[in-house]
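hiii so um. not sure if this is the right channel but i have a protein structure encoded as tokens and i wanna go backwards to a sequence. like what aa goes where. can anyone help
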């Protein structure tokens, strides 16, 4: 049976034609990311890299050199253009579908209220420039987009629909992967209060409601439209979460409030300074013995040069300014600078899990990568930053 986890009280009503267009875009996206990508990797391994070695008498050195030789090739140019185009087509499709019914969705958000959790917004709040200055991953208007409507859920609805184009039925799996890691490595952790930073619409957050049923769950983000949508979505699903509009660099929670502070794919959308501030704030927020866990895609050090080149395309062609800088950052040093004791903070790889919590990581590559002896292709796990106070 098809998983229905993308359905909830805020799911937009689509016409026949809109559904057909979504299906077409999803299929096109899948083709580019699965089929064309495989072709490009094969082209690199079997043609471009050997030709370089033959002519230069040495292997390609690093991701910059891989980019130089790859981007000269028309096949690669076509692939990268297709990737960018399919991203734009995807967002255009989603935005048109959402904008058509935005007033109805805004009204529906209010109707979802069941007073399980709460929503605290701050009218005077200023979204940090690293979020507001760019339409991250080409999402039109970015996370703060309101479609010109008061009390709007626009960006939240657009994000949710966009993510369902990537991973329908798999929403929140990043959170599930972190939970899998925590249950395995911190089996005695019984958090009374959990905070999810950069929650967007709470896809990952809601997984914590199920995994730690005795905990109070808090989630914050800088973007009001995402929080309104996320709150309504959670309430419609009967999940109790306290959402608030705050900057994770400095929150209004009292020191030592949380046993567990987490985030999923927040880090690469911040900045070097902001991430350092966030790590420091995490430590402040933790109770003694509390755990911090942040998941993102792996660091450059954990992946082969070709995958590094592909990752770098996110910065060059998908409006992810901090993506590559983050992957090269010394995160262990950053955690120590934030106050975590050197033997109480580390980097690791967490297994990726699917909607049934089934691991789909290639565990051999993952185990090798943990000892930094071998570099596997992307998809072998989430990079996690762990700190214990
Ligand atoms: C890629 S999304 C996170 C997705 C989400 N964690 C999930 O698993 O579905 C990044 C989010 O971080 C938020 N964000 C960026 N900087 C932030 C900050 N300093 N404080 C709080 N939220 C932030 C953005 O508004 C955006 O909603």
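sure thing!! here u go:
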């Amino acid at each position: 049976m098809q998983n229905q986890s993308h359905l909830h009280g805020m799911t937009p009503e689509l016409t026949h034609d809109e559904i057909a267009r979504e299906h077409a875009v999803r299929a096109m996206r899948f083709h580019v990311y699965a089929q064309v990508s495989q072709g490009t990797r094969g082209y690199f391994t079997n043609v471009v890299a050997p030709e370089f070695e033959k002519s230069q008498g040495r292997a390609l050195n690093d991701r910059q050199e891989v980019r130089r030789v790859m981007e000269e090739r028309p096949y690669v140019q076509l692939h990268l253009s297709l990737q960018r185009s399919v991203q734009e087509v995807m967002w255009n499709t989603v935005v048109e579908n959402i904008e058509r019914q935005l007033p109805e969705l805004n009204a529906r958000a209010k109707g979802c209220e069941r007073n399980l959790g709460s929503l605290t917004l701050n009218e005077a709040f200023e979204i940090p420039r690293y979020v507001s200055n760019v339409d991250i991953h080409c999402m039109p208007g970015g996370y703060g987009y309101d479609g010109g409507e008061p009390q709007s859920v626009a960006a939240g609805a657009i994000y949710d629909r966009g993510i369902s184009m990537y991973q329908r039925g798999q929403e929140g799996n990043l959170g599930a992967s972190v939970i899998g890691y925590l249950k395995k490595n911190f089996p005695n952790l019984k958090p009374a209060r959990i905070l999810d930073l950069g929650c967007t619409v709470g896809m990952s957050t809601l997984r914590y409601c199920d995994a730690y049923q005795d905990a109070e769950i808090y989630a914050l983000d800088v973007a009001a439209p995402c929080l309104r949508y996320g709150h309504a979505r959670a309430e419609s699903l009967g999940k109790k979460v306290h959402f608030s509009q705050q900057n994770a660099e400095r929150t209004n929670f009292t020191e030592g409030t949380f046993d567990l502070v987490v985030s999923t794919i927040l880090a690469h959308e911040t900045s070097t300074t902001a991430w350092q501030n966030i790590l420091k704030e995490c430590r402040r927020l933790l109770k003694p013995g509390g755990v911090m866990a942040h998941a993102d895609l792996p660091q450059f050090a954990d992946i082969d040069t070709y995958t590094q080149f592909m990752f770098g395309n996110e910065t060059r062609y998908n409006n992810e300014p901090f993506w590559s800088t983050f992957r090269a950052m010394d995160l262990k040093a950053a955690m120590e600078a934030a106050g975590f004791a050197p033997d109480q903070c580390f980097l690791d790889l967490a297994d990726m899990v699917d909607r049934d919590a089934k691991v789909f990581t290639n565990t051999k590559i993952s185990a090798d990568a943990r000892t930094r002896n071998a570099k596997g292709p992307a998809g072998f796990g989430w990079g996690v930053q762990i700190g214990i106070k």
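oh and The pocket of S-adenosylmethionine is lined by residues 128, 131, 143, 174-175, 197-200, 203-204, 220-223, 226, 247-249, 264-266, 269-270, 274 (CB under 6 Å).
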